[in-house]
Each structure stands twice: as structure tokens, then as C-alpha cells.
Specification:
The protein has 20 helices and five strands. The protein is α/β, with parallel strands linked by helices and 442 residues long.
């Protein structure tokens, strides 16, 4: 046992959690991550090269990040120091550095493993950066969040990033059988019960092992053998599926839902909606995103979309869950099936970009308000043409943009849905502008 381990002596086998008993002792025992650990793959080469390097292991919970770090320490005969960014600060980092210096005096290198490194702030991450650069420490960070956003650039530039994946059904099945054999080889778990447990695990190997451990204890206590799917439902309180409300899983799923709506696929949009609700997402947040979709991806091609989503949000506020979720589903399907246009969204971004790059131009005198005699005497409102008094209720050729800004058709309606009629109307008005012989909507 390396000096960085937390326990000075091995506890009795019966008291060791199943997950610890199943922790791989060699690389070939690791389940999953074939894209990194297969022959000729990056992490396999890192192990066989004989040369340590700092790295960040990015992936969802329960896929082997800590295991790989420990195996790295054993393969290179290095001291292993593990910190959790949730419970550690600069003080613990300094203590780790002191231990690494002592290990160096004994001729041993140190691997510093920081779990949930994304929870360290910039100052904390900077605290061990000099020692990584000096070679005193090899840094291995584990994170469930995108390191591009959560790890400072200096540290990120000195560490290779390896992306770990959730375990698929075949990999979970292998791990399940190992867990069952280790926990109670005589216990029979039928296929339906196994599939139920694999579903509850949701790609998380650590969760799978924990579920098997709970199930074995429940079956032994109840004297049940074989174990059926019904017993699984009775014995295990179903955990929510993986859904980090502040992390990448959250934004990936809402992104998938948004893209499904934009792609006019109601079935996929409903799937992601239900996935998010099943995972514990706040329905109010989903409602706000639906309102955004109604304007960004549908807009004036079907103005009912905005009305529908606002009504769905209001209905949810009145009914709550689960009844109100049906209104969100209805709005989701409507948006997915509605005629699509991003013309308003595109125009909005174009105008914002133009204003950001342009100066602060004054409002033309004829468009200024003149509530006082002084303002009138200064020319405010002079020459303004009241549109309602003009032919067709339109002041052809009138100028509404600041002086010096050429008339630009930022808003370009599509020929779909209601926007087709809007296009016809604007084409007619621009023709009137050209006929007036004045700067207008050309």
C-alpha cells in the first residue's frame, strides 16, 4: 500500500464495500473505455510508455476515473495522494506538496489525484501548478464537467484531456456478473431482474455495483432465491437517472430537445422532454426554453407558437407536477410540428452586431418627441409624417433610421407560414418607397 492511502491496515473482508473489492488490480480488469484502453489506444500507450504525464479524466460518474488514477500510481510505483475538491483547499494542497517532497527524498515520485477538480477555484488550481511544472507532482484531475470551462487555461495546457464514456449495456452486464459472483455466487438473478438493475444503473458502474450489493443484502435477509424483477422493484428504491442540473448532462439534453424541435421531429422532442423530467429537471426551466424556441425557431411563421408556450407555462404554474407536465408536452409537440423560421432571430442578431460596431447616432429631428414649447422651437418633430393620414396608412419614403445609416433589410421573412404574407406586404411597401423617390426601404 502506498503512503498516500488512507487506511493503515486492511479491514475485514466482510466490511469492505463491494465496489472496493471489485476495484481492478490491473489494467486488463477495467470494464469499458476501450477507446482509451484498447491496444494502441492513448491510455494504454501511456501505461506502457514508462513515462508519466499530467492528465484530466473527463467523464460521467462511475466510469473508472479514480480507478485509472490508482492503476497509474501502481504501474509507475508512485506514491498516490488523493484529494477531493469538495472537501479540500489550499491547506490540503500544501500538505500534499510537503508529502511529495518527502517522497522525492526517498526516491519516489508522487501522483496527485484531484477528484471533482472543477470545484477548485482559480486560486486553488494555481496553488499546485508550479509543482506540476517543476516535476514534483504528476497531476491527474477527474471531472464530470467540461474542462474547457472549468479548468484554468494554464493547467489545461499542461495536461492531456481524456474523455471517458458511460458504460454500455454489454459492459454493464460484465460488471454485473462480476458483482453478483463476488457478493453471492449462489444467488440467482433472472434476466428480467438483471435488465431492471442495468436500467437503474444508467451507464454508471459504481451505481450498478451499489445496486447489486443492496439487492444481495435484501435477498439474503428475505430468503429470496431466485431474484425476480418484481423483487427488484420492491427491494430497491429507484434512483433518479443521471442528470446533473448544473453540468454538461443538463445542457446536452436541453440542447438535444431544442435541436429536435428545430428539426421538426415531435417524437424525439418528446423523448428528450421526458428524459429531462424523469431526471429531475425543473419543468419551469423547460417551459422557459420552450418560450425561447417559439421565437428563435418559429417566430412570425406561426405566431401561435409563442402564445401556446406561454399558455403551457401558465397552466403548469396552476396545476404543478405531474398534471401540468402534459401542457409542456403539448407545447413541445406543437413547436416541433410548426412552420419554422429564424428570420426574426437572425435580424435581431444582425442589428445587435451592427449597433455594437457602430457609434451612438442621434435620433433624427423629425422623429423626436416635442412635449414642450422649447423642444418644438428647437425643431423636434418638424417634418414628421403621420402614417395614418397617408395613402394606405403608409408614409412612403419616410426615413426612420438615424442619419448616415443606409436602409438595410435586416428582417428577411421566409416564404413559409404567415411570414409568406408578411413578405408580400413588405415587398409592396418597399415598392411604394421606391416610387416615392426618397430614401426608404429599398
Amino acid at each position: 500500500m502506498s503512503s498516500g492511502d488512507l487506511f493503515a491496515a486492511e479491514p475485514p473482508a466482510g466490511s469492505v464495500p463491494l465496489a472496493e473489492r471489485l476495484r481492478p488490480a490491473m489494467l486488463d480488469e477495467v470494464v469499458g473505455q476501450a477507446h482509451l484502453l484498447g491496444e494502441g489506444k492513448p491510455l494504454r500507450l501511456a501505461f506502457s510508455s514508462g513515462r508519466l504525464h499530467s492528465m484530466i479524466l473527463w467523464g460521467p460518474p462511475g466510469v473508472g476515473k479514480t480507478t485509472l488514477a490508482r492503476l497509474m500510481a501502481e504501474a509507475f510505483e508512485a506514491d498516490f495522494i488523493a484529494l477531493s475538491a469538495v472537501f479540500s483547499g489550499v491547506k490540503e494542497i500544501r500538505e500534499a506538496v510537503q508529502r511529495a517532497q518527502m517522497a522525492r527524498e526517498r526516491g519516489r515520485h508522487t501522483i496527485l489525484f484531484v477528484d471533482e477538480v472543477h470545484r477548485f477555484n482559480k486560486a486553488q488550481q494555481d496553488a499546485f501548478l508550479p509543482f506540476v511544472e517543476q516535476g514534483l507532482l504528476t497531476f491527474i484531475g477527474a471531472t464530470t464537467e467540461n474542462p474547457s470551462f472549468e479548468v484554468n487555461a494554464a493547467l489545461l495546457s499542461r495536461a492531456a484531456v481524456y474523455v471517458l464514456k458511460s458504460l454500455d449495456e454489454a459492459e454493464l452486464t460484465v460488471l454485473f456478473e462480476r458483482a453478483r459472483q463476488t457478493a453471492d455466487a449462489a444467488l440467482v438473478i433472472d434476466d428480467a431482474a438483471r435488465d431492471r438493475i442495468l436500467g437503474f444503473a444508467d451507464g454508471d458502474g459504481r451505481r450498478l455495483i451499489g445496486l447489486v450489493e443492496q439487492l444481495v443484502i435484501a435477498a439474503q435477509t428475505a430468503g429470496v432465491n431466485p431474484v425476480t424483477a418484481e423483487f427488484v422493484d420492491q427491494a430497491l428504491s429507484r434512483n433518479l437517472r443521471r442528470f446533473d442540473k448544473g453540468g454538461d448532462a443538463f445542457y446536452d439534453q436541453i440542447s438535444a430537445m431544442h435541436k429536435s424541435v428545430r428539426g421538426s421531429n415531435p417524437d424525439a422532442a418528446l423523448y428528450w422532454l421526458c428524459r429531462m423530467l424523469d431526471g429531475g429537471a425543473d419543468p419551469r426551466y423547460i417551459g422557459r426554453r420552450l418560450v425561447r424556441m417559439a421565437s428563435e425557431d418559429i417566430g412570425l411563421a406561426d405566431p401561435r407558437a409563442l402564445e401556446m408556450t406561454l399558455q403551457a407555462c401558465a397552466a403548469y404554474e396552476r396545476l404543478g407536477s405531474p398534471e401540468g407536465e402534459l401542457m409542456l408536452a403539448q407545447a413541445t409537440v406543437f413547436l416541433a410540428c410548426a412552420t419554422k423560421s429564424n428570420a426574426v432571430y437572425t435580424a435581431y442578431k444582425a442589428v445587435r452586431r451592427f449597433i455594437a460596431e457602430d457609434g451612438s447616432r442621434p435620433v433624427p429631428m423629425h422623429l423626436r418627441n416635442a412635449p414642450t414649447k422649447l423642444m418644438k422651437s428647437m425643431g423636434h418633430g418638424d417634418g414628421y409624417r403621420y402614417a395614418h393620414d397617408e395613402i394606405e396608412g403608409y408614409a412612403a419614403g419616410e426615413q426612420y433610421l438615424p442619419d448616415g445609416v443606409d436602409t438595410q433589410p435586416w428582417y428577411q421573412p421566409t416564404d413559409r407560414g404567415m411570414e409568406a404574407r408578411i413578405r408580400e406586404k413588405l415587398d409592396h411597401l418597399r415598392a411604394l418607397d421606391r416610387g416615392a423617390g426618397k430614401p426608404g426601404r429599398d
